[in-house]
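Study this one:
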Amino acid sequence: MEKDFGQEFNLPTPQPGEIWELNRWVRSPLLFSKQEQQQLYSEAARRFLEGKSPSRYVTIVNEPEPPLDPEAEWQVVSVMLMSPETNFVSDVDLFIPQEISGVGQDLLAQTWHILPMLTCNLLQPVGRRLSREIYDLLMTVGDYYLGLVDAAPSPPEIEALGLKIASISSSQQPEIQAFHRQEQAWSDVLLVPLAAARAYLKRMKLMDSVLNEAIQISRNLSVETKSAEDCQI
């Protein structure tokens, strides 16, 4: 569901390693009709927004970026998706027990799935902030998956921090690949409002540019008219 973007929200600034619950009432500068929502959001995303699937959480990857526009409120933050479906542990989906997360349930950290989102669609911080060691480990696992580092943490290193990892590659498991596709579809919850904000701000800048050009043309015409009148005198 979408909420009027004019409402005020006073949330603490998200910090790396914090776990936040996501808002089902997404905010966006563009309000979509029911038909548009059907077209823009996947079925998995719509089920979440309609309250038909469990609460979802993310881990904050970095502090929010500056607003998309200095005069706008729309801030972006990068997050790592966390899933309550903990039966899909793989080499890139790490099991985090509730004793560590403090959320009240076990979670699956999708180290391969880091996305930007609007901070206004974070609902509230929950549980415990992950330790620096666990945060760094999750980021390194994800970086290795993306080919950004040469080595991943070993299973003993991961298990020493209380997490669990599967030794078999996710690319070799059809059920894991299907889970990843499902999660990518679900991520419309985060990506559609962000795309709407960027499109809205781009449109506003274009309108400002057109307006400024029209004003300049009007001024030039006024000067030319005044000059012509002076010549006639």
